[in-house]
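Repro:
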Amino acid sequence: MKRINLGRIFLIAGLLSQAIIYSALWVRMITSAAERTGTDFIAFYSAGRIALTGRVYEAYLPQVQQAAEENVLGFTIAIEELAPFVHPPFIIPPLALIAYLPYVSAFYAWAIILLAIFSIAVYFLYRVIPPGDDRGVLIASSLLFFPIFVSILNGQDSALLLLGAAVWYYGLVKGNDRLAGLGLALTVIRPHIALLLAIPFLFRGRRVWWWFLAGASGLALFSFLVVGLRGTVNFLHILTISASGEGYKTNEIAMVNFLGLLRRLVPTLAPEPTRVISWVTYFIGIVFLSVLWARSEQIKAKHAGAAILVAILAAPHLHYHDLVLLLIPLFSVIAIIKSEKYLNQGITRYFPLIASWLLIGSNFHPLLKYSIPYLLGLVLAVSLWYPEIVFKKWMRSG
């Protein structure tokens, strides 16, 4: 009698269930006018529509953004209800292209673009893993990673953030400083995260820093050419508003960083002190990683994974969709297990799937939604630096 492979059944059932749930949620969102216009994509689409007017430098003016969003919505909104576009100008050209389409069609096109970018990012990640027969499963479970779906469902550009981090991670592991630096430059889609990850390379691996600076400078120049001086000033202005945490839909209490944790744990604390504490935490994170880099002989996979976890926690602005970055420490743990031969090597194929279902399940209760990501990050941190504590060493025979 043929033995039933429970592991394979778990994988197939888990991945198929994710695909069905994601499809149902996407259909519900895209067929509901209120839901699809309530996503972050409306800000991206409106920026593209503004660019088509020939006044791309106005893409960062709140009043112009408000008028563009009202044209999509079909009714007026208060300035406090505005979903502001605060992303670097270098992504405006593709947004202008899809803005030729009606809103729903543009949303589909943007989702396909994001999925393609996520696929490239996952490709770089699995290239770091030693060869094995579980790569197909890792690719599928990584592309179905819950924060990836949340990002696509909201029309957010976290795909570019993960792509930059994945290329950076791949370059570090493979000893390619140029690739690592250029990948890190792409993470300037979230400037605060890019700086936190880049500054430590001034103390170890300075070639990565110079390549980052070159890549970031190239993107800055391209951005300047897109929006000009007036647009650049407008962008920097709205960026300072976003960084201050004031106005619009900042929603700090829903963030999955230290600031969000503090706002939820101490709701009576005034917003201003929590933001000051958050920025202090951010600079402490930079100092911590800089010291860690300086004291390390070589920057390895575990360093990259730890840096991402610090960035997630210490970033002064980070929402759920940017938890796509958790794939970096997750793959770092898988790489360590495979290289050091901890556990049965086939078990690692379950890791992205298990992490996804933990995050999916946590969304059924607010307390779990805003606690499981921190617990998952803690487990990953300990697994990176003390794998012998988390995993029982197991040498595969033969």
